[in-house]
Amino acid sequence: MFATEPVRIVAVSAGLSSPSSTRLLAERVAGAARERLLAGQDRPVEVRVIDLRDLAVDIANHLVTGFPPADLDAAIKEVVEADGLIAVSPVFTASYSGLFKSFFDLIDNTALTGKPVVIAATGGTARHSLVLEHAMRPLFAYLRATVVPTSVYAASEDWGASGDEYTEGLPSRIRRAGGELADMLTGGRAASGASRTPGLDDEVVPFEQQLADLRLD
How many CB atoms lie within 10 A of CB 3? Predict the structure, then answer.
């Protein structure tokens, strides 16, 4: 890749309403990543948000016929060719939406290998935040993507909240996730799940301790 080529970030939003808090969260995370990238290197940054609700009929047709319409084919290519990906779904029945799953079902399970991804979700209550760890992170592990450590969940009450001395507010979590994506894109740090051969100075942490230290956002 030439130094003058832009860094391409694609955000996929599975929100169904307009306006959509899911799309808003996708835009905020993408904006945070773009801001960090522009501050840390001199390449331009392109951000594209794909609204899956506009492709819902095309996705259904592709699942039935096996042939993607032009707009859907272009969207899939943008996701596959992006340098970094942000994937955001509303929570339906304690998991990601069917529209979200159907879209990623159309992507070859090796096409996202090694691609840095931020996972995020929106819902009416904070009780559904576990969807990020028990549903979305395994999905992108199957797709062989590299999911950044920080995931972002936005409940209805999170919008406009600044957090307190014990918890980070939504803007802080967005900046952290966007920053981790930017760092991955510039080689600044390794993301959770990235493949690396341990060195002599690496501390081996028992799996039980890793589980105990796991923090859910």
Answer: 7
Which residue, 71, 66, 65, 33, is CA-closest to 51?
71
Q: Which residue has the tokens 């967005």?
A: 174
Q: For 3, phi and psi rounded to 5 degrees?
A: -65, -25
Q: What's the rounded Cα separation, in Å, for the pair 217 and 204?
A: 25
Tokens standing for 175?
């900046």
What predicted TM-score, i.e. pTM, was given to this entire model?
Answer: 0.82
How buried is residue 131: exposed, middle or buried, by Cβ count under 10 Å (0-12/13-18/19+)? buried
Q: What integer is the mean pLDDT of 50-57?
A: 97
| Helix, strand, coil percentages, rounded to 5, for the chain | 45, 20, 35
Pairwise CA distance, residues 129 & 91, whole Å: 9
Is 85 within 8 Å of 116 (Cβ atoms)? yes
Confidence at residue 162, expressed as pLDDT on a 0 to 100 scale: 60
